[in-house]
Amino acid sequence: MLFHTPEFITLMIVSLVLFYALPRWRIPMLTVANMIFYVVAGVGNLILFLAMTAFTYYCSKGMRGPYARFLLWFSIIVNVANLVFFKYTTFLIRSAENWTGVKLLTENSFLLKIVLPIGISFYTFQMIAYLVDVYKKKWEPAQSVFHFWVFISFFAHLVAGPIMRGREFMPQIDNLAKIRYSAANFRLGAFFLSLGIFKKVVLADYLTPHVDQFFAHTSTMTGAEGWVAAYLFAFQIFFDFSAYSEMALGIAYFFGMELAVNFRTPYLSTNPTEFWRRWHITLSNWIKDYIYIPLGGSRKGEVRQYTNLFIAMTVSGIWHGASWTFVAWGMFYGALATVHKIYLVVKEKLGLGFLDKSRIYHVIAIIVFFHITCIAWVLFRVNGLHNALSLIKRMLSPQAFHFAGLYMYLAVAVGLFALHIVEHFLQKHRTGLSAWWHRYFPAPVRALLYTAVAAILILALRGEQNTFIYFQF
Hints:
mainly alpha
């Protein structure tokens, strides 16, 4: 169920009315609402999700007994196996066929009919984080299986994050009965929801057909067309994914809850480390806390640190999809992060630390890294590793800089980057700008503008509603 559909809006409004009218019944009400939201993806998917939720909850309850370690690993293995079966089985078998030359799947094999349950990657990672945190006594098990279900399945963040931790979100679930109506929260909710709808239906969905048109002819694209396609896709996926995250923030504020921020203008990053602190932040933190640090982090020497970093980023790539292009995408960022760490060491030894204070160096670093990010997006978007590498090779050739006939698309890309800078400014100065807005513009003027924005968004919503890109993960 998409956020920007009449069906979801109806579900949200009914849920909000019941939420504030019946505070003692909030857990049962959200339990049912989350089921209604998810059952749209299929009854089988809902049954699987409920089963994994109950299994994980009861395993976590047993982690205060003598079999805590066994239950931890058993529950993690079952959760990972569930994810692997639905997301990677066909990919692994097809890869084995290519390596061995032996046909393992027939055309009628039931494995080819497996449908990926929506949101499975997100709720699996959230369950694993919860299990580890309960085992390490960072958080106590949920009060009931219904509390845990609402924690895992809250419809605002279920399908595409943010990935919430027990210590961040469970206290809010436990205190649902104490939440009171707040006009400030509703204003914030309306702002983030409107921003997300604008990014999705006005920006991302506008870019989608142009991006699809370019990548439909990957094998015949020139290097210049490859760069234009990568520029447009970079902003399509950013606006699409950040739109979902910001709509999720807005919906949570309506219910008096707060979700983690998932994006902070990532294309203004100067290096891969900064990029992953700005892009899909909750996944980055998950990878750091539950992959990189358990592997040893930076505690066991530089070589081990680089290895751990490479492995962690490769896992991030695998999480995104069952394809060698996603594996290569993760490995690419792992290699980038490693090279950046080495670069920092060399720069320090050469006494070049003063460069960090140079504004010119900072701008150049942003431009260079944005183009590196666009190369990475080719791996993410193109079907087939050979096709992706072939296109990247053409993009890096001298002929790739002949943009004849593509200047309109380049102008759009520059405009989108300028919009990204504006968003950064608004994020950085949000509090001051909000105070200025309310101080110098009277309520009638603000109401008129809000009404105009709402009307524009409603008209935009009347068109075809595209799904979110990250629903496939």
